Amino acid sequence: MRDPRSSWASPWLSGSIPVLVLAALPALLFVGVLLYFTLWAVVFSFTDLELFGRKATDWSFVGIENYERLFTRRGFLESLWTTLTFTFFSAIVGQSVLGFLLASTLRRYRGSMRGTIEVCLMLGWLLPDIVAAFLWSATTSKTGLVNQVILGPLGVEPVNFLNDYALQVVILANIWKGTAWSYLLYSAALDNVPGEVVEAAKVDGANGWQRTRRVILPIIKPHIGTNMLFITIWTFTYFPLIYAMTGGGPGSQTETLPIFLYQQSFSVGKLGYGSAISVAMLAIVGVMSIFYLRLLKEPK
Amino acid sequence: MADLALKGVRKAFGGLEVIKGVDLDIRDGEFVVFVGPSGCGKSTLLRMIAGLETVTGGEVSIGGKVMNGVPAPRRGISMVFQSYALYPHMSVRENMSFGLQIAGMDKAETTRRVEAAAEILQIGDYLDRAPRALSGGQRQRVAIGRAIVREPEVFLFDEPLSNLDAALRGQTRVEIARLHARLGTTMIYVTHDQTEAMTLADRIVVLRGGRVEQVGTPLELYRAPANDFVAGFIGGHTMNFLSPEQGRALLAGTGGAVPAGAKIIGVRPEHLRLAEPGAPGLTGRIDVVEEFGEFGLYHLTLDEAPEGHREITLKSDAEGLGGEGAQITLTCRPEAIHAFDDKGAALAAGSPAGAGRADRPSEETRHVR
């Protein structure tokens, strides 16, 4: 005799229908709100709605014109490429690899050095984006710390890094800002690797690199997947730091999709086109998430 | 195969010294068990032999070569860990081949060795399963298999049975003994369980607080413990410790005497007997009887006993001892007495220590009974 409800309802709720309904209400409301906003974006992506002027009130459906523009007009594909570069180097290579290296190195140490480095990492993470952006701009400007303290004494002409190496500086800034998260997550993951398993590999003759690649990394693979999922989504949609540092410039060198979306929607005022960009971003992030979720799955 | 020597081996973690100078010679092919309570340093000592802990002082040598600075894989050792430490993402076969693969052994030889080990351990059927699909006992075999395929000079076991249930533990114990008989390799085995030590060892090393308390064959340790600690630790049922007066009372009807200078008298539960009716002895009342079938354990409270010496345990298969609440009188043979001085060191008992104790057939026969 199986209660049909038991297949989906949590057992301590399924006993009483009123409790079940009551417990489900906030969740339903939340899902509803989420769907409402997403639908709003999807619907407007098929319109020529604008922020100002006549089309702000008198808009009409234009079919898939906005989506065609994504591929035919300059802007979107370039911005997508910038975003992918930014995400790949700052999140996947920078934060994740650096975070893992720090976590695996520092776990051997106890005490003040580890504490100091952890506090420094956290400071980057906790500092408000706008403050961080200002600090990075000031440090890398023509009269900033890097030029004054490092390049000047070496006899090198002052360089305006934010002008000449904008994307590189923004990537570095985001690595500095976000590594703490990867560090924390990988530290926790490495705590879950049994010490005796690593020692067994040591006795088996595996050197540090072999132990890492063939024993430790496979064991923490689900954690790597989780981390990649988070930091890819965050970095892909990351707005304030870049916007405050460069505003997407110079030119459109650092114009990642969120900035492109913001410019198109609120500077240019094309809300319909902006909606199409956001729906496209949603699709891209969704595809990447599916890829990482497959990593998370335990093998059979 | 190789012999192994420890010379003045010391280990300190920061300022805390956990191994305080251990000297030990282990012969080629010998099965040596390190036994002691938790925190005695037995696992640390094993890990130092394995090369997983650095040596703070002294020398560890295997096969005549000093191994202090040599990394674990080049010491010719294999280790079986308490948690089995199987690689969770690899199949049984991959677990066993991993070390050989790292060493660059060719595929055919690797396969041959893995299959030979699987045959010995009867795990051939699970070679392609993941460790998580195996029971505790099966995992244990895989861990041993992984150690075997490396064909080491010395096997190291770190409490390998402590995660198994009692029935499986007994069975695996016998299998490890068989494995030793079959391979003839030097084995060092760490345990806190004196039964494993007694049943497996050629020689037992009893450790306490980072020092060796005694080294000897199981029977030597059972018959002639060097001090009260070893006496209390070795033996299936914990030795009774009595005051000298109680010892004299126990021996009153036998003509035996408590050695001069004795502060503590030890007597094993299996060596106590019921006194003849009317004969003198140590009297007490039975509180609890634990009936095991082939024998019973009688826990008594002694009459007029000093603090700390109120209770005594008797192991007997005699019938008619009486149930709970019965008043009985105990005695024992003078040779079965262990006497210890105020520092706990063993004194010559009814007969001289050493040779005298080694040939005490009566004890042996009663023990085997």
UniProtKB/TrEMBL annotation, chain A:
PANTHER family: BLR7065 PROTEIN, SPERMIDINE_PUTRESCINE TRANSPORT SYSTEM PERMEASE PROTEIN. One of its GO terms (cellular component) is plasma membrane. GO terms for biological process: transmembrane transport. It is a multi-pass membrane protein. This is Carbohydrate ABC transporter membrane protein 1 (CUT1 family). Pfam families: BPD_transp_1. InterPro entries: MetI-like, MetI-like_sf. It comes from Pseudoroseicyclus aestuarii. Keywords: Cell membrane, Membrane, Transmembrane, Transmembrane helix, Transport. The keyword Transmembrane helix applies. Belongs to the binding-protein-dependent transport system permease family. Its main location: membrane. It is found in: Cell membrane. PROSITE patterns: ABC_TM1. The chain crosses the membrane at residues 12-43, 80-103, 115-136, 165-186, 224-245, 271-293. Residues 80-294 form the ABC transmembrane type-1 domain.
UniProtKB/TrEMBL annotation, chain B:
Keywords: ATP-binding, Nucleotide-binding, Transport. Residues 357-369 have a biased composition (Basic and acidic residues). PROSITE patterns: ABC_TRANSPORTER_1, ABC_TRANSPORTER_2. GO terms for cellular component: ATP-binding cassette (ABC) transporter complex, substrate-binding subunit-containing; maltose transport complex. Residues 4-234 form the ABC transporter domain. Transmembrane segments: none annotated. Coiled coil: none annotated. It holds the Pfam family ABC_tran. GO terms for molecular function: ABC-type maltose transporter activity; ATP binding; ATP hydrolysis activity. Residues 348-369 are annotated as: Disordered. The keyword Nucleotide-binding applies. InterPro entries: AAA+_ATPase, ABC_transporter-like_ATP-bd, ABC_transporter-like_CS, ABC_transpr_MalK-like, ABC_transpr_MalK/UgpC-like, Mo/tungstate-bd_C_term_dom, NA-bd_OB-fold, P-loop_NTPase. It comes from the Bacteria. Belongs to the ABC transporter superfamily. This is Carbohydrate ABC transporter ATP-binding protein (CUT1 family). It comes from Pseudoroseicyclus aestuarii.
